[in-house]
Amino acid sequence: MSEAALTPSPARPARRAGGARVRGESRLVQAILIAIALVFLLLVLGLPLASVFVEAFRKGWDVYLEGLSDPDALAAVRLTLLVAAIAVPVNVVFGLAAAWCIAKYEFRGKTLLTSLIDLPFSVSPVISGLVYVLLFGAQGWFGPWLKANGVEIIFALPGIVLATIFVTFPFVAREVLPLMQSHGTADEEAALTLGASGWRTFWTITLPNVKWGVLYGVLLCNARAMGEFGAVSVVSGRIRGLTTTMPLHVEILYNEYNTVAAFAVASLLALLALVTLVLKTLLEWRYADHLSANGKH
């Protein structure tokens, strides 16, 4: 055989179906696409965010602090933190339990359960709040019985918590489920074979494998819980100083033309969004490294 026959042929450009060559975009096209994306983000996110802080500090630092120190504003902050402190742990427990069942077991109704987890993404929060009113309101299915027993859900803290839990419960489950499915059941089966109990297997194997997904889901769940408006607006009654969360308090102040105080409270929500964005970025970076490390072994 000749030397020419033994010489490998030079690599040819990859071809798409139909014979067209795959070519990279030119630097000009890349620059134009990046510029369009940056301009869009500036107009849609940057300017509104900047306007919140500009309006909040328009009359000075003292007026800004006065708006935040108002008793009704402080009550709204406390209620928002309380609702998030209740809703987020409940959704963590539910999310882990639902993801565990779907990823580790086969049972009838598995597809239905997966679809129900996504239900809040397809139902308007206002509709979900209205459903709770129809169920637990004074004229609802269970309202008269609850009132007779001294239980108040609608226009009170329990209704706000229920509405918040509903709109936020997919976040933890949806972040944890793909991780549990990717890890499979081999590690848990090995631990059970060696005599570990179910709880010990969960705490030492399952939870460490999905901890970054849990943290990521908690972050998103908390941000949504603190910023929820539609469902909470329906079930809260907007009783100023009692059942108004921070988003509802901002709307009340703005409708009263107290714009500086409204933007002062809104700036707290904006800061929450910025902190969430930073933590989300850090978790995504750390989360990607974790997945990559798992994929190499």
Automatic annotation (TrEMBL):
Localisation: Cell inner membrane
Keywords: Cell inner membrane, Cell membrane, Membrane, Sulfate transport, Transmembrane, Transmembrane helix, Transport
Transmembrane regions listed in the UniProt entry: 31-54, 74-103, 115-141, 153-173, 260-279
InterPro entries (UniProt xref): CysW_permease (IPR011866), MetI-like (IPR000515), MetI-like_sf (IPR035906), Sulph_transpt2 (IPR005667)
Major site of localization recorded for this protein: membrane
Gene Ontology cellular-component annotations: plasma membrane
Positions of the ABC transmembrane type-1 domain: 77-284
GO molecular function: ABC-type sulfate transporter activity
Gene3D superfamilies to which the protein is assigned, alphabetical: MetI-like
Membrane topology of the entry: Multi-pass membrane protein
Quaternary structure (record): The complex is composed of two ATP-binding proteins (CysA), two transmembrane proteins (CysT and CysW) and a solute-binding protein (CysP).
Function, as annotated: Part of the ABC transporter complex CysAWTP (TC 3.A.1.6.1) involved in sulfate/thiosulfate import. Probably responsible for the translocation of the substrate across the membrane.
Name recorded for this polypeptide: Sulfate transport system permease protein CysW
Organism ancestry: Bacteria, Pseudomonadati, Pseudomonadota, Alphaproteobacteria, Hyphomicrobiales
